[in-house]
Amino acid sequence: MRFSILFAPTLKESPAEAEIISHKLLLRAGMIRKVAAGIYSFLPLGYRTLKKIENIIREEMDRIGAQEMLMPALQPADPWKKSGRWDQYGLEMMRLKDRNGREFALGPTHEELITDLAMKEVRSYRQLPLTLYQIQVKFRDEIRPRFGLMRAREFIMKDAYSFNANMGDLTASYNDMYMAYNRIFSRCGLEFRAVEAASGLIGGKVSQEFMVLAEAGEDTILYCGTCDYAASQDVATSRMEEPSTEEIKKVKVVDTPRQKSVDEVSAFLGVPADKIIKTLIYKYDNQLIAVIMRGDRDVNEEKLATVLGTTNFHLLTGAEWQDYPGLVQGYVGPVGLDGIRLIADNEVSLIRNFVVGANLEDAHMINVNVGEDFQVEEWADLKMVRSGDACPRCQGTLISAKGIEVGHIFQLGTKYSEVMGATFIDEDGLPKPYIMGCYGIGVSRLVAAAIEQNYDEGGIIWPVSIAPYEVEVVVLNYDRDEQREIADRVYTELGKMGIEAVLDDRIESAGKKFADADLIGIPVQVVIGTRTLKSGNIEVKIRSSNERKEFPLDRAVDMIVELVKRMRADVGVGGNSVEQAG
RNA sequence: CGGGGUGUGGCUCAGCUUGGUUAGAGCACCGGUUUUGGGAACCGGGGGUCGGAGGUUCAAAUCCUCUCACCCCGACCA
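^ Those are the sequences you sent over. The predicted structure of the assembly is below.
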């Protein structure tokens, strides 16, 4: 491709709408343009990267025996009503009607359609296991689209679904996917971690997320510095500390005028925050629940949702306190808090002689103990685990990191097949629901994630496996015969050798060409200009390391080809890895 | 949806508080001359319903009302 005709409108300045680095650089490098909030067009360079990622995914899906297919983006309401998600999904599902008033949705995901298809076509255990996948546009009318491709409303997703006859086969399909995902993200040149995850609206019990580690990530993960434990903060647990061995003292009410928050009480009484127990009042289904937790901890509402069996709850708001005159805001405590369901975080059981609110204005209780001063019926792990907590699996310590969720795999079990009545005839002649798994990758999000991990002041630094082109030939004076002839020859020969090259043949200043080359981030820059040509050399710059070498003209093409091949091999793009797995 | 903010040429922004020439700058774009290894210099040029609608006024980018779009902070997720 010649730069002079390439549609890559680069920008010197970042559009004001872009906040994070990947969004800015995608816009500046002329790879995407916005059409509406959370909706983007991929320009030629961006589309090339997208297709590269798609192809890596295809190779690895095909390798584990998954079969590619394509389902429509526009889906009838019917299967969604069958699964019950037509009502559950809420406003995030973009709904519309056709001219006859029939209901449709732009698919936010495809479990319903695929299950419907399997139900109609797969009748016998002999046809299982079966794994199907597609790379399709998804539409989710996000509450708040943001950060460019990171959280778009329309986005490209690879979604795969496995149908199995039993749990053992599901585990096998799931493990194949797990391995394939590891290969995919490695081949994309990314630093990532697989973590235990919550399964949310999709459902199922076992699930793992693949997180690309990056500061701009919207998720927090915790991983052990010693063993391989890693979990999303939503579900992370930690090993409990040793219980206190203090003598139990006698409870006592003390004055704490105007001291409401944990910090205030801690300072006022001279008691560390981890010896204060806070009592949080939540409202759900028109009733109240009190959660008690160590004062220096936050409640993990994801965990609370699991315990309550609903996501429909919230901390009592300022106005709502008026409805419950028995509750003294800022001074609520578990002692004598009758008629309200009480749940205690497990950690509370470790502490003795702690401080709680006295349920009286301007007063707290000290030397309070579970069992002595109040009873706890319900215990649960409700705390938000944080960096520095003890690993639940070993003696190590947990570390927190920000991540971008680029993949999520689920063992669904029979969640969809059961409600939709999707069964096969098993060996014993009886109909049984399929045991299913589903496996997603945010393909367009991956484009952004790759940039979040690979950039510098100058622009993007593409891993060679997903770069729009592998080599950019920068000719400083294309209007001079010598340079033009050399550049054309190098460019053409690289193409013949199977190298994807772009030739910057524009009549522009050297500075602009260098700046654009760095911005767009092609891994290898070949610079042709008078300075090195004098000594019969051309210059090669490695974008990632900024390393510069001079190659003699007569051997330059071979040396560039060698260089690119080495770079490909470094991210596992050897091309010799396509043998079929069983 | 709640809270905060922004809409002025392709991009970044000034002007708005306190209404008053023909609405400005830098970058980008077009023509020319000179340049030519890190976003070149000079000369000339084109491009604006000031997001939209309504209102106040002798007069509105500027004040008021409504509306639309976009961005940021919270609840969702690949």
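The domain at 21-194+413-453 of chain A is CATH 3.30.930.10 (BirA Bifunctional Protein; domain 2). Residues 573-582 of chain A have pLDDT under 50 and may be disordered.

Shout if you want it in another format.
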